[in-house]
Specification:
This protein is an alpha/beta fold and 414 residues long. Helix content is 51%, strand content 7%. The strands form two sheets. Strands 2-1-3-4 form a four-stranded parallel sheet, sandwiched between helices. It has a four-stranded parallel sheet with strand order 6-5-7-8. Bound molecules: iron/sulfur cluster (2 copies).
């Protein structure tokens, strides 16, 4: 798709990239069929091809109205369209450029801007988030109903202390921001599983949020600063012998793997992030590379309906990998129909677009329950909290179900 960029838009590397991405799109519309928002709203402009046209129009005219911004804002960033596209269009990169311009040319209303500012200033910072959650739990009965359900219960699951073991290998275990406040049980379970394999999990002192929250809320500068801080700390530990950076939230794993895209080519941090890239692995990807014959769950382990987060299946291209891994350990794993569709969590989408997000969750839970698993498992903290709010069956990270099944099966830690 040839694009003549308006002279009123300041040239930039991102703009050049957007132009190159637009050139790849052949308007075939295959992507539209697998787009969750198009399926719900039935409007071409709420599907990927329509949004691509809108972005092209913004670039060519240097103008954007409220309607264009609204259609772009309704996009989940789920990348289902990227999986479907036969021409390899990097839609999300284009969306980030289009949205940034749309926000500049047609600013969001004050309330929306304030909400996004609050999200950017709180979610990525566990020290700010933890007291807020404590206070919110205390005053939960006084909160509006919609908000009341958004406050997760205190993370009181038993944290079994690890005994010192003969671990001859070590990895860095990424802590995350929201997860490190509301679901410490996920990384605790991961440490125990890795210990069974003779692997010690290290914390990187001074590590920050991966940057995904800020990146997706159009604050690239902060995301870049967070990435730089993390890259330096992780590379130091890698130079000291850590063999991988293991990440239990698929959204964070994707953001970290894509750090090179945050920096100009040939810059210092572009090179550093390229060096880091092969070390970063989502927990399922890491375990798939290990001998996991010691991880066998008992026969009465619960059957699992598995929700594969978009960041795992469309972003990291790990479709079916975790399901296969869980089956290898002995779990009976059920896959829901329309597994490619987003659950509606999508970062902060459930807060900025509650209506659409709620409908997508209803549909997803229906399919997960129809799949027949006794419990629901997923691989990303955002999806987990979002589904947990309304699910009738327990929802946890799959690593927790695996850890619990191994503990009840009394398979001793080696
Ligand atoms: S990212 Fe998801 S919601 Fe957005 S256009 Fe693509 S498929 Fe549709
Ligand atoms: S499938 Fe790819 S090439 Fe076809 S319209 Fe969608 S983005 Fe463009």
């Amino acid at each position: 798709m040839e694009t003549h960029i308006s002279k009123s838009i300041t040239p930039s590397v991102a703009l050049q990239e957007a132009e190159a991405i637009l050139r790849r799109c052949v308007h075939c519309g295959f992507c539209t069929a697998t787009c969750p928002t198009y399926q719900l709203l039935g409007n071409e402009l709420d599907g990927p091809r329509g949004r691509i046209y809108l972005i092209k129009q913004i670039l060519e005219t240097g103008q954007a109205g409220k309607d264009a911004r609204t259609h772009l804002d309704r996009c989940l960033g789920c990348r289902s369209c990227e999986t479907t596209c036969p021409s390899g269009v990097h839609y999300l990169r284009l969306l980030h450029v289009g949205r940034h311009l749309a926000y500049e040319l047609a600013p969001l209303p004050f309330a929306q801007r304030s909400l996004r500012h609050i999200l950017r200033a709180t979610l990525p910072y566990p020290r700010r988030l933890a007291p807020m959650f404590r206070a919110a739990r205390l005053f939960r009965p006084l909160l509006p109903l919609a908000l009341r359900h958004k406050i997760p219960d205190a993370d009181n699951k038993a944290q079994q202390a690890l005994q010192p073991q003969n671990c001859h290998r070590k990895i860095i275990l990424f802590q995350g921001c929201v997860q490190s406040v509301v679901a410490t049980s996920i990384n605790a379970a991961t440490r125990r599983i890795l210990q069974r394999l003779g692997i010690q999990s290290l914390d990187a002192t001074g590590e920050s949020c991966c940057g995904a929250v800020n990146h997706h809320l159009d604050d690239i500068e902060t995301a870049r600063n967070m990435a730089q801080n993390n890259i330096d700390r992780w590379l130091t530990l890698i130079d000291e012998g850590a063999e991988a950076l293991v990440v239990t939230a698929s959204a964070c794993a994707l953001e970290i793997k894509e750090y090179p895209l945050l920096f100009p080519e040939n810059s210092k941090y572009h090179d550093k992030s390229l060096r880091l890239q092969p070390y970063c692995m989502e927990i399922g990807e890491f375990l798939a590379k290990q001998d996991i014959s010691a991880l066998r769950v008992p026969e009465d382990a619960p059957t699992i309906s598995f929700h594969s987060p978009c960041t795992l299946q469309h972003g990291l291209k790990g479709q079916g990998h975790t399901e296969a891994l869980l089956r290898e350990t002995g779990f009976d794993v059920r896959e829901p129909e329309d597994a490619h569709l987003c659950c509606g969590s999508a970062g902060t989408y459930s807060i900025t677009q509650p209506k659409l997000s709620g409908t997508l969750r209803e549909n997803k839970l229906l399919q997960l329950e129809k799949a027949g698993g006794e419990v629901i498992a997923t691989a990303n903290i955002g999806c987990l909290l979002h589904l947990q709010e309304k699910a009738e069956r327990p929802v946890r990270h799959w690593i927790e179900w695996l850890d619990e099944a191994l503990e009840t099966g009394n398979t001793p830690v080696q």
